[in-house]
Amino acid sequence: MTSADYDLGYVSAALPILEDYILSPDLYWSLAAKPPDSGPAYPQLTLGNLYLAIARLKARQLSTDQETRLYKLEIELDHMRARWSVALEKKAAHSYSSRLKMWGNFLDEYRTRPENHYDRYAYEVRLRVMLRLLAPLLSTPSKVEQELLTGLDKLLQAVFIPGGFIWGGELASGFPPDTYWYLYGRLREE
């Protein structure tokens, strides 16, 4: 899992180019920034990755300096959302559709060969979290996509083994089990 400095660096690198990204037809954009402490390369800029980084930051115990930085970044993001609300919703809808397809593909791969895919769950479930984080950006969610997500959740529940929080205790308070139940357990191995 990433650190607070890593996520703050990602959000800080994303916001200066977010307007251009929102107004572009592209779903993925590269970030030129380098992560702190020789960490893994930042993922490409997407709304899902951006909102996931912010959610992880809000879940952590931050230093006063980190809290101040996050507060300023959120104000900047709110201004961007207000200024480009229509374009942002369009981008969010595109991102939501893409993440839903990727989540469905993972679950299909798991269903076909659970022994080859169950151990990827802790990573792949970030797609389901992104869907939850992107949903509030959509004023009119697609009924077809809502039904598909409901079906995927039912499939997941049928093969899900409840347990502890899978992303490490530091983030658990930001992802409560009543909302993010899929982060509290694992997939059956077969």
List the main descriptive attributes of the protein structure presented here.
190 residues; mainly alpha; 2 domains; 2 strands
The Rg value, from CA coordinates, equals 17 Å
Count, helices: 8
Residue share in helices?
A: 55-70%
> Strands of the biggest beta sheet: in what spatial order?
1-2
- Number of structural domains: 2
> Which stretches of 5+ consecutive residues score pLDDT under 50?
none
Main sheet makeup = 2 strands, antiparallel
Topology, number of strands: 2
The ordered string of helix (H) and strand (E) elements is: HHHHHHHHEE
Structural class: mainly alpha
Strand content: 5-15%
Q: Based on CA inertia axes, which overall geometry fits?
A: globular
Mean pLDDT: 95
Q: Report how far apart the termini are.
A: 26 Å
Q: Would you mind describing this structure in some detail?
A:
This protein is mostly helical. The protein folds into two domains: 4-86; 90-187. Helix content is 61%, strand content 5%. The chain has eight helices and two strands; from the N terminus they run H-H-H-H-H-H-H-H-E-E. The chain has helices spanning 4-23, 47-59, 64-83, 85-112, 114-117, 121-124, 126-134, 143-159; strands at 160-165, 184-187. It has a two-stranded antiparallel sheet with strand order 1-2. Helix 1 (4-23) runs parallel beside helix 3 (64-83), helix 4 packs antiparallel against helix 7 (126-134) and helix 4 runs parallel beside helix 8. The chain is globular and about 45 Å long. The protein starts with a helix and ends with a strand. 26% of the residues are buried. The mean pLDDT is 95.
